[in-house]
């Protein structure tokens, strides 16, 4: 396996480009609400790696800038598995499903994949390699982490308009004190993961929605 190492402390932008290996990562396993999103990214040869990094180490503005650059100059795909599927499958299997869908969305370009974490989704038809903390080591996985995080955050901002009582645009569904307080006060809404203990413990209540 050959892939581009992400040299975080290397100031040179002239790293060789990926030889065709697709990076895969996800965002949203831990929140109490919203989808889990997976992304798959294939970087073209001599892609400028400046600014790529583990999405958690970038600001929202930096992630947005990198997302739009990747969208313009690389092959990217993503897939979201919603809260209902998460409840039905469990979060691990839902994450695997999102990864399989994202890889499939690349339309056969993925001949080999490297995936952040210690497991790979079952059922892939190409060689797959799990890499612990891969988003801090490989440019393609870092790029996938940026795409997944940016897309999921944007989805949660949209949900915050539909379900304004919960502050999804601030905490993105993670169990912050503000979110837990709103959840306790209003009960879960349609995008809360009822299989998660903190949600399951609450009595389901109707929530304010702007849906017609």
Features:
212 residues, five-stranded mixed beta sheet, 37% helix, globular
Structure description:
It contains 7 helices and 5 strands; from the N terminus they run ββαβααββαααα. The chain is an alpha/beta fold and about 210 residues long. A 5-stranded mixed β-sheet has the order 3-2-1-4-5, sandwiched between helices. Strand 1 and strand 2 form a beta hairpin. Helix 1 (about 60-75) packs across helix 4 (about 140-160) and helix 2 crosses helix 3. The longest helix is centred in the C-terminal third of the chain and has 24 residues, at about 140-160. The relative contact order is 0.21.
* Oligomeric category: single chain
Fraction of residues in H or I helices: 25-40%
- The poorly predicted ranges are 7-18
Termini separation (Å)? 51 Å
Give the biggest beta sheet: 5 strands, mixed
User: Helix and strand succession?
Assistant: EEHEHHEEHHHH
Structural class: alpha/beta
Give the DSSP E fraction (strand runs of 2 or more residues). 5-15%
Q: What Rg do the Cα atoms give?
A: 18 Å
Large-scale geometry: globular
Count of helical stretches: 7
Number of strands: 5
The main sheet orders its strands as 3-2-1-4-5
* Mean of pLDDT: 88
């Amino acid at each position: 396996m050959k892939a581009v190492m992400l040299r975080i402390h290397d100031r040179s932008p002239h790293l060789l480009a990926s030889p065709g290996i697709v990076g895969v990562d996800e965002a949203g396993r831990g929140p109490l609400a919203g989808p889990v999103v997976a992304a798959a990214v294939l970087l073209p040869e001599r892609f400028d790696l400046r600014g790529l990094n583990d999405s958690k180490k970038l600001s929202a503005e930096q992630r947005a800038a990198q997302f739009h650059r990747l969208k313009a100059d690389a092959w990217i795909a993503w897939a979201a598995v919603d809260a209902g599927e998460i409840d039905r499958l469990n979060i691990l299997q839902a994450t695997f499903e999102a990864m399989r869908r994202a890889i499939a969305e690349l339309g056969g370009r993925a001949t080999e994949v490297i995936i952040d974490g210690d497991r790979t989704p079952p059922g892939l038809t190409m060689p797959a390699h799990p890499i612990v903390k891969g988003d801090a080591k490989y440019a393609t996985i870092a790029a996938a982490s940026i795409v997944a995080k940016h897309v999921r955050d944007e989805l949660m901002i949209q949900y915050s308009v539909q379900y304004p009582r919960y502050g999804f645009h601030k905490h993105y569904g993670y169990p912050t004190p503000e979110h837990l307080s709103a959840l306790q006060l209003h009960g879960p809404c349609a995008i809360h993961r009822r299989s998660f203990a903190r949600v399951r413990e609450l009595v389901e209540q109707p929530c304010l929605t702007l849906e017609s």
